[in-house]
Design a protein that fits this description.
Blueprint: E1 4-6, H1 30-37, H2 77-80, H3 88-94, H4 117-120, E2 125-130, H5 142-153, E3 157-158, E4 164-168, E5 171-176, E6 191-195, E7 197-200, E8 205-209, H6 210-219, E9 225-232, E10 235-237, E11 242-245, E12 247-250, E13 255-259, E14 267-269, E15 277-279, H7 285-307, H8 326-331, H9 338-348, H10 352-365, H11 369-383
Parallel strand pairs: 2-3, 2-9, 8-10, 9-13
Antiparallel strand pairs: 1-11, 4-5, 5-6, 7-8, 12-13, 14-15
Helix pairs in contact: 1-9, 5-7, 5-10, 10-11
C-alpha cells in the first residue's frame, strides 16, 4: 500500500483508454511467476498443491490467482514505480526474522535453531493499539481487527489500553499518564506533549504529523513485542506538501502508525485540499461498518507483512500489491498470492488449509461474500484427492 498521496496539478486528458506501466517495468510472464515461487521450472521441484490449483503447464500454471491489473490511472502504483518484485528466494536472504542471529532491538529469549518466527522468539507478539479514542460513530471494532490479524498471520496478537490524545483548541497533545509508565524516570504527574499538527478553522479538521507519533510509539513499545502498530482515526501527513499519508513504519524500530480516517465510504475527500471532505449519501450503518472493517483488515495485515519482510508484490493480483491511491487500494484482493503465501508460511509455519478455514469463519461471520466464496472454493480444491 502507498504511504502517501500527494497533491498534484496535472492536465486533464479526455478519453484515455490506455495507461502505460512505469518506464522500465516488465510484466511478469507465467515462467517468471513460477520462478518467483522458487519451485517448478528451473528448480526441478513440483509445485505443492497449496501454492497452485492446476498441474503445472506452460499455458496456465495458476487459475485461482489473477495476473496484476493493467493501470487504469496515471496515479496507479505500477504506473508510477518500476517495482522489481521480491521472489521467494530473495525473501529468504533478505528477511531478518529468518536469520540465525537475533534481530536488533528484540528482548525476548532467542532460539537460533528454530525455523519459524514464534519458535525463534517464543514469548513475543504483535501489538495493535488504538492511538486516540474510537467511539461508536467510527464503526471500528478493534477486537475484530485483532481477530482477523491473528487468523491471517497465525501469530500471537495482543493490544494495550489506548494511547490517549487530547485536543485543546487548535492543538493536539499526546497524554502520558503515570499509570502507563514503567521506567524509573516516570513522573507522578500527567504529562502533555504537543504533537505537530495542522488545523483548519472553517472545517475543524486536524491532520497530525506522523514522525512525532512514531517517536512516542518507540517510547512505549513493550519488551515482548515483535512490533507495535498504532491505529488512529486522525488524518496523517509527513511533509507539508502532502495531501495525506495513510501511514508509515519505522521498521528498524519495530513501530508503525496508520490512519483509518479515509476508509469510511460515506465520505469522499478532496484531491487538492487536505482539509476538505464531502458527505456521500446512501450508505446504511451496516454497509459502513462492513466496508470499514474489510478495508481496515486489509490495511493492517498488509503493513504488518511489510514489517515481517514481505515487499510489494508484482507477480499476481495480491493483498501485497502496492497502491497509489485509495480506489486502487480498495479494489485489491484480501488474499495472498502463491509467492507471498509461501513466504508467510515459511516464516510462521502454519497449516495452509487450517489457516483458510480460520479465515472462512471470519468472512462468514461478517458476510464478506466474495471472500467467503473464494476461500470455500480454495479449501475444496486443496482437500481434493
Amino acid at each position: 500500500m502507498s504511504a502517501s498521496a500527494k497533491s498534484k496539478k496535472t492536465k486533464k486528458v479526455k478519453n484515455v483508454r490506455y495507461v502505460p506501466y512505469a518506464r522500465g517495468f516488465k510484466i511478469p510472464t507465467k515462467k517468471d511467476q513460477v520462478l518467483a515461487l522458487g519451485l517448478g521450472v528451473g528448480n526441478k521441484l513440483p509445485i505443492p498443491k497449496e501454492y497452485t490449483d492446476t498441474t503445472f503447464s506452460d499455458v496456465n500454471p495458476f487459475t485461482f490467482f489473477n495476473n496484476i491489473q493493467q493501470p487504469t490511472s496515471i496515479d496507479d502504483w505500477l504506473a508510477q514505480y518500476n517495482e522489481e518484485g521480491q521472489t521467494y528466494s530473495q525473501y529468504l536472504k533478505q528477511c531478518p526474522w529468518l536469520s540465525p542471529r537475533k534481530v536488533k532491538g528484540m528482548h525476548d529469549n532467542f532460539v537460533s535453531s528454530a525455523k519459524t518466527l514464534s519458535g525463534k522468539y517464543p514469548g513475543s507478539k504483535i501489538y495493535i493499539v488504538p492511538v486516540g479514542e474510537f467511539n461508536e460513530e467510527d464503526y471500528i471494532s478493534f477486537s475484530n481487527l485483532l481477530d482477523y490479524s491473528k487468523r491471517f498471520l497465525c501469530l500471537p496478537i495482543a493490544t494495550l489500553p489506548h494511547f490517549k490524545l487530547q485536543q485543546n483548541g487548535d492543538k493536539l497533545y499526546w497524554v502520558d499518564e503515570p499509570s502507563t509508565k514503567t521506567t524509573v524516570r516516570s513522573s507522578p504527574r500527567t504529562r502533555l506533549t504537543e504533537l505537530t499538527s495542522r488545523f483548519h478553522t472553517n472545517t475543524g479538521n486536524f491532520q497530525v504529523q506522523i514522525s512525532p507519533l512514531l517517536t512516542k510509539l518507540r517510547q512505549n513499545i513493550p519488551r515482548d513485542a515483535f512490533c507495535l502498530i498504532g491505529l488512529t482515526r486522525h488524518d496523517l501527513y509527513a511533509d507539508e506538501s502532502d495531501l495525506f499519508v495513510a501511514g508509515m513504519a519505522a521498521g528498524n524500530h519495530g513501530v508503525a502508525v496508520f490512519s483509518l480516517n479515509r476508509y469510511d465510504p460515506s465520505f469522499s475527500f478532496s484531491t487538492e485540499f487536505w482539509y476538505q471532505r464531502y458527505k456521500v449519501p446512501g450508505y446504511t450503518a451496516e454497509e459502513r461498518r462492513h466496508l470499514i472493517l474489510q478495508r481496515s483488515c486489509k490495511l493492517v495485515v498488509h503493513e504488518i507483512c511489510h514489517i515481517l519482510g514481505l515487499d510489494h508484490c508484482i507477480f499476481f493480483d495480491c493483498c501485497m500489491n502496492g497502491s497509489g491511491h485509495l480506489a486502487e487500494d480498495f479494489r485489491q484482493p484480501m488474499h495472498l498470492c502463491p509467492v507471498d503465501l509461501r513466504k508467510l508460511q515459511t516464516l510462521c509455519g502454519f497449516n495452509t488449509v487450517k489457516r483458510y478455514e480460520q479465515l472462512l469463519e471470519f468472512y462468514k461471520k461478517f458476510k464478506m461474500e466474495s471472500e467467503t466464496d473464494w476461500v470455500e472454493r480454495r479449501i475444496a480444491y486443496l482437500k481434493q484427492k
